Amino acid sequence: VQLQASGGGLVQPGGSLRLSCAASGRIGGMGWFRQAPEKDREFVAAIRWADAGAYYSNSVRGRFTISRDKAKNTVYLQMNSLKPEDTAVYFCASSPRSYNIGHYAGSSAYDSWGQGTQVTVSS
Predict the structure, then answer these.
(1) Does the pLDDT at position 7 exceed 90?
(2) What is the four-CA torsion angle of 64, 76, 16, 44, rounded to 10 degrees?
(3) Angle made by CA atoms 108, 79, 23, in degrees to the nearest 5
(4) Is the distance from CB of 80 to CB of 16 less than 8 angstroms?
């Protein structure tokens, strides 16, 4: 499975960005993770492909929305009310298996990872 993420950039606090990630192959679920400098990679959001069930980390719930377009095999992350602490490299990941939605919060659920896209929130 190949993943291609796009949509990162520089945005002011309170602004919005939308990330996209196109995948090939069978998809059971997809997720977004992020890694800030000198920090561990952390879970952001995940979506189960069959029913669009979604799951979010506490730090982004209510501000970020994950969605998918099955026809395009693409997952999106709409990020609103961005904060400086959202600054990180964002990675998309794909799993061919269908799990309970909470299982997608763990990086071990995924077989394939994208190359990452930088999101910088700064004035």
Answers:
(1) yes
(2) 40
(3) 45
(4) yes
Calculate the alpha carbon distances from 89 to 26, 33, 70, 106, 111 in Å: 25, 8, 25, 17, 19
Count Cα atoms within 13 angstroms, Cβ side, for 21: 31
How many other β-carbons are positioned within 10 Å of the β-carbon of residue 113? 17
Q: Is 108 helix (H, G, I), strand (E, B) or coil?
A: helix
Q: In 53-74, which positions are buried (b, 16+ CB within 10 angstroms) versus exposed (e)?
A: ebbbbeebeeebbbebeeeebb
pLDDT tens for each residue of 55-93: 999 999 999 999 999 999 999 999 999 999 999 999 999
C-alpha torsion angle, residues 81, 89, 38, 62 (rounded to 10) = 30
CA distance 51 to 60: 21
Write the single-letter amino acid at 97: R
For residues 115 and 66, the answer to whether their CB atoms sit within 8 Å is no
C-beta of residue 95 within 8 angstroms of C-beta of residue 30:
yes
